[in-house]
Each structure stands twice: as structure tokens, then as C-alpha cells.
Fold this protein.
Amino acid sequence: MSIKARIGLVCGGQSAEHDISLLSARNVFQALDRDRYEITLIGVSRDGTWRLMPLSQDGSFPSRLSDDQPAVALLPGGKGRFLVDIGDAKSETTSFNIDVLFPILHGPFGEDGTVQGAAELAGVPYVGPGVFSSAAAMDKDTAKRLLRDAGLPIAAYVALTDRDRLPNFMDIVDKLGPTVFVKPARMGSSVGVTKASTAEEFDAAAKAAFHHDQKILVEEYVQGREIECGILQLENGELICSPPGEIEPSKQHKFYSYDAKYLDPKGASVLVPAEVASGTARLAMDRSIHAFNALGCEGMARIDFFLTPQGELLVNEVNTIPGFTNISMYPKVFEAAGIPTSQLVGHLIDFAFARAAKVGGR
């Protein structure tokens, strides 16, 4: 009987995407092969505390995080060792070990290089891109600069910080057109994203975006279809790009908002594969790999595009920990490509081990 790899599945988190993380982690948990993996669930509360998550009585994923569970900490240099705080200073230190960290943490304090850095310091293999690419992709301003410098087409935008004086809306119109999208620079799942066509809407949109981040982006409105491709890196380094899928928001939603994604069951349709010309599909796949490499990504990513009526294909975002919910594009496009989620997560773990062995034999 082979020894099972011990997986530390980390979910929840401090960002506004906490609940989305739990939905994603539930699906990853269900997809992990119990013959190959022993799973320890670690929930990150909204205040940032890492806690053990006991399974439900039937062995299923728990319905919620609990604040009365022991806090845990990943030990720097511990090669995957976690220390457990059992609240008794007189007792011996309790600990457990994992072989690989699988972070399903969307947004800041998880997808932005922070957890990846903790794993690097701990000397434990981890799933997904590294510190730099995670941080670069999370900051949409930085990502767009790197993509643009790599020769990839992007939408026009302006970046603003909370130290800047909010520009006059007419000055924005002169640069970006009469309608814009305002969004936090370092957030996902369409959190804090607002469409604005008047000065009043622009001021309110900027205020909403600054509620989530100290830097925001104001982007030109691109009329087009939302096309997405997934990238998977195998343990031998080979990159597999899925054929594109398409997100089609329903008519009652102006764009693919948070409500359309997660609150309205009929808010959008996920079309896999996307109904696009073969040349467009091939271009999307080529540009996905180009974008993946431009940001130095490893392991996995989802690349999002706008496809205009004129056939222009603009890179919108690179997501380094894509969603794994029931409606998420990343697992759906790979399932359509013949890689079910159980195999997909297995490949991600295999790459984590292979990368760690290559860079230091951890």
C-alpha cells in the first residue's frame, strides 16, 4: 500500500471573497482522491486566524468555519510542520505535518503572494504560481503594465490611489470614453466593480472601489464577449491550455457582476466551449500562454479576455487561484478538454512536488 500524500487545504481568508473560497475548497475537497491523499482542512477566519477545520460527522466538508477550533501556525523552516495552539501553556507542543499546501484563497492575503511566501519560508511545496507572479497578477495595474510590455493588447485604463485627487469625470471621458468601469486594483470575483456613465456614478463607484483597496482602476468600457481559458502546467513543465469558454451575463445584469456570478442562479450562463471561430479560439489559447509566461506564472491560471464585435481580443485579467465552485470556468473548460476535476487537482499537486524538488529538493 502506497503512502498517502498529506494535503493541507487552506480556505476562507480575510478578503471579501471569503465565502467564494469556501465554495471552491468544498469542490476541491470532494475531487481529491482519498486513495492518494490524506487531507487536513485549515480555515482562515475573516480576522486572519488559521484554525483546524474538523470534518462533519459523515466525513464531508464542514458547513462553516468555527472560531472555537484550535489555532494553527505554519512553522518557518519546518518543512510543512504546523504548530497547534491548544490553549494550555503547560502541555507539550502539539503539531502535525503536511507534504503540500493547497491554498484556495481568493483575493488579498492568499492569492497575492502572501501565503505563497509563507510556504516558501516554511520549505513546503505548494500548489499554484509563486510569490512574484501571484503578487503581480493580483495587482491589476502591475499586471496590465507587464502584459502591455509583453506586446499583449489590453483595454485603456487609469490607475488612482487614495492619495490622488479624484479627477473630473469629463477628464476621464476624454481619456477613456463616456462609460467606464471602476474597480479595486487588488480584488477578484467582481467585488467592488461598478459601471459609471455620469459624474455622480463615477464618484460613487470610486468610493465603493476605495472601500476595498487603496488603489483603483478606471477602465474604458469594452463592448464585447467575455472569453476565458485555463492553463495547467504538468510536472514535466508542459503547459496545457484549454479551449476557451464564455461567460454570458443574463439581460437583467449589465455585466458579469458579483450578483450575477454568485447570488442570482440565473445571472449568467457558462458556455463551454465558447462558440467562436477556430482562429479566434487558437488566438485566445496562444495569448493565454503568452500572458501566463509574461507574468512568470507556474502551475495554474485562468486568463480572461474581451472579444469585441470587430474581432479584437483584449487580455483583461490573469487569475492565479481561479475559482473551483460549481459555476467556475477553470474546472469546466478542463473537464470539456477531457481532464476531470479529480485529475486536474492531482496534476496541480504533482507539479507542486516537482517544482519543489527542482528548486531545492524539499
Remarks:
- The domain at 137-153+223-360 is CATH 3.30.470.20 (D-amino Acid Aminotransferase; Chain A, domain 1).
